[in-house]
Design a protein that fits this description.
By secondary structure, the protein is an alpha/beta fold. Helices cover about 45% and strands about 15% of the residues. It is built from nine helices and seven strands, in the order H-E-H-E-H-E-H-E-H-E-H-E-H-H-H-E. Helix 2 links the parallel strand 1 and strand 2. The longest helix is centred in the middle third of the chain and has 29 residues. It is globular, with a radius of gyration of 17 Å.
């Protein structure tokens, strides 16, 4: 391992695939990884958002491949993984960030919400890994970061399908780490609290709604997208080479109570 601390936190020369990279946390992750030296593949359904993220990556001197893909389908992640490998030959860092939330109480939630949530939040990371990991095994190196949620660790009212999908993703992370660790592939999950993306701001700007949630967070604030992206960078870099199979909360202490 290099003695240079800056290089230990670098991903220079690596290629990272970030799903859900057209906006929010995914767009910030793609930008931060590019700033740290990686070429980037992003996927998403929002063509305009993909173009905006791609422009930010290119502006810092890195390559960017933007792929339109619908992760509600089986074909979406399968075709995205194949296209990324055709372009770059191999992916060093896979960030399974794409996700949806259908917030309804159990007795009010239609089956369609459950199935769509499981498809995007749990099946798609499984399929992406199946597509990308064989080349990682062949090369003896890989980093996988699954973007989960504190709702996958504790029960939250109205989050039945979302929480179940993220809880499943956390356990999938552990099995991936167990099976692929012998090939020098590190797999971890990050579990954020409310993050103030554009959607987060829209959903949590009402003090009446936000107050009770903030009261449960010792730091008394929500997170910023760059704070999640920085944790992902750490897990993608050589600095985290002894960490695998972990679900890391980034929640201001919410789950410490």
């Amino acid at each position: 391992m290099t003695q240079d601390p800056l290089r230990r936190f670098s991903v220079e020369g690596k290629t990272a695939l970030v799903t859900g990279g057209s906006k929010g946390i995914g767009a910030e992750i793609a930008h931060v990884l590019a700033l740290a030296g990686a070429d980037i593949v992003i996927t998403g359904r929002d063509r305009t958002g993909l173009q905006e993220t791609s422009a930010k990556v290119v502006a810092v001197g890195r390559r960017c491949l933007a792929l339109e893909a619908d992760f509600r389908t089986v074909e979406g992640p399968v075709s995205a993984a194949a296209a990324a490998l055709r372009e770059f030959g191999a992916i060093d860092i896979l960030v399974n960030n794409a996700g949806i939330a259908r917030i309804k109480r159990l007795l009010d939630a239609p089956l369609e919400d459950w199935e769509e949530t499981m498809a995007v939040n749990l099946r798609a990371p499984y399929l992406m890994a199946q597509g990308i990991v064989p080349k990682m095994i062949e090369r003896g190196y890989g980093k996988i970061i699954n973007v989960s949620s504190q709702a996958g660790v504790i029960g939250i009212d109205g989050h039945a399908s979302y929480g179940a999908s993220k809880g499943g993703l956390n356990l999938l992370t552990k099995v991936m780490a167990l099976e692929w660790g012998p090939y020098n592939i590190h797999v971890n999950a990050v579990c954020p609290t409310v993050i103030l993306t554009a959607m987060g701001i829209e959903n949590w700007s009402d003090p009446v709604k936000a107050g009770p949630m903030l009261d449960k967070i010792p730091l008394r604030r929500f997170g910023q997208p760059v704070e999640v992206a920085d944790l992902v960078l750490f897990l993608a870099s050589p600095a985290s080479d002894l960490i695998t199979g972990e679900t890391i909360l980034i929640d201001g202490g919410y789950c410490a109570i």
